[in-house]
TrEMBL record:
It comes from Cupriavidus necator (strain ATCC 17699 / DSM 428 / KCTC 22496 / NCIMB 10442 / H16 / Stanier 337). GO terms for molecular function: methylmalonate-semialdehyde dehydrogenase (acylating, NAD) activity. Its EC number is 1.2.1.27. This is methylmalonate-semialdehyde dehydrogenase (CoA acylating). PROSITE patterns: ALDEHYDE_DEHYDR_CYS (PS00070). The keyword NAD applies. InterPro entries: Ald_DH/histidinol_DH, Ald_DH_C, Ald_DH_CS_CYS, Ald_DH_N, Aldehyde_DH_dom, MeMal-semiAld_DH. PANTHER family: MALONATE-SEMIALDEHYDE DEHYDROGENASE, METHYLMALONATE-SEMIALDEHYDE DEHYDROGENASE [ACYLATING], MITOCHONDRIAL. It comes from the Bacteria.
Length: 507
């Protein structure tokens, strides 16, 4: 997305949030927020200046001095108000999300709801942030732990879930007593900003939550600022690796959730209709723009005969603008994304894969400029082809056939990514073997997109994740807090004198 010069026109400019105030940036470069179904420019996003990023971090740093001491009950009550406001405004924000990102209204509401679940879980902070206690670890000596906030945290979020992923980050960080600087995707920040407005309305104090916009310069500033203690990232592998390396080199905790190539392994005993529905939904929903989308179908044995049925199921999906009734597959987010996906489809043909369903050239009445690509399916795919090795991030399924479950497991484990996988079978023994032997962080059994509920943590692995603690759930409380261990001895009689002890023992 190219930068655009600063001009005075009717298109609104997305503000920054610094110390509780929405402010106009003094930036000289802007990016357009574009409706991917119509190419209408909805807003301009400023590429924040270095001084503005510093001001946002400074506000968060100052606010931490008081917010960290805010009682847990007060923090969780802010989250209770926040989740109620999200419920009240979810349909309005979903319409904004659809306009700027392209996904269907139903999927946009789901985007918000999955983030809302994390906010609801944040309301349990009273039990999530408890330490431990052991009495009499030695004579009259007790040891206990405190889970204390770590300071200013930053979040860098992607375009594909502009509601859910910011809600993975800042609610859990601030409810733990930290302050936060959020950098939404510059492609679709409008729905994110609406959620932040609700957080302020819920009672988040000035400086506790700040918002800056920008590209690489802003990302680098957040990764290197000495007052930022932790960085959360969700996005591409290239950017995620850069963020992890840069922020880690500057002494920060980092969780970096990155790219994926998610396989669905289908055994011939699977429930056929349910499996076909699951594959079509997980492969083509959100136009394939999910890091947990099914992008590779591995058909085992006689399940290889299901390809014509899968093609017919995909043909039933309606391609259209996200706000139009009945749409199943909306546009991809940008012209550049569409061109990249079309290039990979062409590469698949050149490299010898069989294109059994071609989604190129789809026309949507009333939306001639939309970034539309229909469901696309390749068979006869080899693992050295670019359509297998690269994350397409579009409505494209590649199909590979193998003879046995062991071959399928080996194929999945050879892939460098480890975000999610699934197995479809009616055999408990096969499912147990799969979940035990597969080297992937999140496993679905007859579930195509195994994103865990917020009581558990998002646990992608290998090439899909850098850092040892994942978003939300128990792991993220560890990520956003520092464990302090206290060993204490109290004497009943102040005159007790045990003498000098020069050993390491605590007798």
């Amino acid at each position: 997305m190219s930068a655009v010069p600063k001009t005075d026109n009717a298109v609104p400019t997305v503000p920054l949030l610094i110390n509780g105030e929405w402010v106009d940036s003094s930036a000289t470069e802007f990016r357009n927020v574009v409706n991917p179904a119509t190419q209408e420019v909805l807003a301009r996003v400023p590429l924040a200046t270095a001084s503005e990023v510093a001001a946002a971090v400074g506000a968060a740093h100052r606010a931490f001095a008081t917010w960290r001491h805010t009682p847990i009950g007060a923090r969780l009550r802010v989250m209770l108000r926040f989740q109620a406001l999200i419920r009240e405004h979810s349909k309005r924000i979903a319409a904004i999300l659809t306009a700027e990102q392209g996904k269907t209204l139903a999927d946009a509401e789901g985007d918000i709801f999955r983030g809302l679940e994390v906010v609801e879980h944040a309301c349990s902070i009273g039990t999530l942030q408890q330490g431990g206690f052991a009495e009499n670890v030695a004579a009259t000596v007790d040891t206990y732990t405190l889970q204390q906030p770590i300071g200013v945290c930053a979040g860098i979020t992607p375009f594909n879930f502009p509601a859910m992923i910011p809600l993975w980050m800042f609610p859990m960080a601030i409810v733990c007593g930290n302050t936060f600087v959020l950098k939404p995707s510059e492609q679709d920040p409008l729905s994110t900003v609406e959620l932040v407005k609700l957080a302020l309305e819920a009672g988040v104090p000035p400086g506790v939550l700040n918002v800056v916009h920008g590209a690489k310069d802003v990302v680098d500033a957040l990764c290197t600022h000495p007052d930022i203690k932790a960085v959360s990232f969700v996005g591409s592998t290239a950017v995620g690796t850069h963020v992890y390396n840069l922020a880690s080199a500057h002494g920060k905790r980092v969780q970096s959730m990155m790219g994926a190539k998610n396989h669905a392994v289908v055994l011939p005993d699977a429930h056929k209709e349910q499996t076909l529905n699951a594959l079509a939904g997980a492969g083509f929903g959100a136009a394939g723009q999910r890091c947990m989308a099914t992008s590779v179908v591995v058909l085992v044995g006689a399940a290889r005969d299901w390809v014509p049925d899968l093609v017919e199921r995909a043909k039933t999906l309606k391609v259209g603008a996200g706000a139009e009734a009945g749409t199943d597959v909306g546009p991809v987010v940008s012209v550049a994304a569409k061109e990249r996906i079309l290039g990979l489809i062409a590469a698949g043909e050149r490299e010898g894969a069989t294109l059994v369903l071609d989604g190129r050239g789809v026309e949507v009445p009333g939306f001639p400029q939309g970034n539309f690509i229909g469901p696309t399916i390749f068979t006869d795919v080899r693992t050295d082809m670019s359509i297998y090795t690269e994350e397409i991030f579009g409505p494209v399924l590649v199909v590979i056939g193998v003879d046995t479950l062991d071959e399928a497991i080996a194929l999945v484990n050879r892939n460098p990514f480890g975000n999610g996988t699934g197995v479809f079978t009616q055999s408990g023994a096969a499912a147990r073997k799969f979940q035990s032997e597969i080297d992937v962080g999140q496993v679905g059994i007859n579930i195509p997109i195994p994103v865990p509920v917020p009581y558990f943590s998002f646990t992608g692995s290998r090439g899909s994740k850098l850092g040892d603690l994942g978003p939300y759930g128990k792991q993220v409380v560890q990520f956003y807090t520092q464990t302090k261990t206290v060993t204490a001895r109290w004497f009943d009689d102040a005159t007790v004198n045990d003498g000098v002890n020069t050993t390491i023992s605590l007798k």
